[in-house]
Amino acid sequence: MSRSLLAWLVIGSTVTLLLWGLYQTPVAEDFSRLTFGWYRVNPDLFGDLELVPIRWLQHFVFTLAAFGVAWVVIDSPRNSSRSLFAILATVVVVGLSPAMALYAKLFEPLSGIITILLSLALSLLYASSEWGQRKHELRRIFGGRISCEMMRKLMGLKDAPVLHGQEQEVVILTVTIFFDEGSFAKPVERSQIVDLTNQFLGATSEFLCSRGAFLDEASPDCVRVFFGLPVALDDSCQQACTAALELRQRLNNLVLEADSQWTQRLRFGIALSLDTVISGIFGEGAQRQYSVLGQGVDLCRRLAVANLNYDSKILVDLSVFQRMTHTFEFRPIDQLQEFPSGKISEFYELMAASGDLSETALRARDQFWNGVMLLREGRNQEALSHFEAARSLVSEEASDPVVLRFIETTRHLLYADGEEPAVVSLPSSDGVQDTFS
Questions:
Q1: What domain count does the chain have?
Q2: One domain, residues 211 and 239
Q3: Looking at the domain assignment, is residue 89 inside a domain?
Q4: pLDDT in tens, 261-301
Q5: 351 and 202: one domain?
Q6: Lowest CB count within 10 Å: 93, 241, 298, 343, which one?
Q7: ∠185-310-408 over CA atoms, to 5°?
């Protein structure tokens, strides 16, 4: 049970019991006599009606007022809204008394007013505490950017989460979509492009938040989330890789839908990067927002765009590969220079979870892996043979665009060197050197 709900129950129950106890004393009779006396001085309006007290309505009204005021004060972040509700509740309680008197029923409003004031005072006391303020602060910062489950976890922490200048390890996941408006096979309305973009945002941001990620950016062509924020997770890297594989299938479905509607095949790229970042609230005034600083953010964006060059779908940096090498299946793609350090770093393609690839697909992966290593050594002819062997292991229906791209690239390199592509004899698939291990 959340603290806010518990506070609401405690405050509402406390005020209700206090008023119920008050009604067991002579004070309740005094309230009724005061109300009855006021109506007796207005004989023109109420005449000589014998007003009959209705205790059950009194109990119902002050119970409803106690819990209602407590809920609004605890749940609303603005004092103006809280005060307005309390005033309106008072008006309703006071107005109920003459309305009931017209039907010869005595309803005294004093207990209802006392209930409203007590509930308002206790609720404001809780709302001014750290626990009461945490709910509204977290909603303002993280509303719509994390899942409901993550929000409840933050609210349930014993100590307030650190949101200013904390250094922690996170996994950055960036998704980009590539499409050229001028390349559509038939004219497309601007509103249709917006609808397509919104489908992309819906298929990515909402899904990733539901998998425990913090949504940092959701622009028309890019979605970026962090796993491990605002609460550190022991298995954030594994969660990010699993979410990326699931997202790949969802976006493949979106690509097929776009192809059927506009005969235009969209392309997308997903990237993962593991980095230690500084998280905090940046900006001033209304522009304040929770985000991070770190080199991994730029690296992840570059890897997401790099998918376009290699016809890949999910690229990861060296840190993710080293952390998850025994949990997921990868293959090497290329190297890039990190900025501003200038360090040359490898990146890999995430293929599937361990155990999900068939034996043939694993052999094809190993052939491709050896081909990449040979290509980096400048042994282009041998590399081409390994790439061709990898392609031969995959059926035409399930052709691998990454392998085809590397074959094309290697052939261009051979032609540039004045060589003719040739087939080099290779050992059997069972005897392929296992550079993966």
A1: 3
A2: yes
A3: yes
A4: 766 667 899 999 999 999 888 888 777 888 888 888 999 99
A5: yes
A6: 343
A7: 90
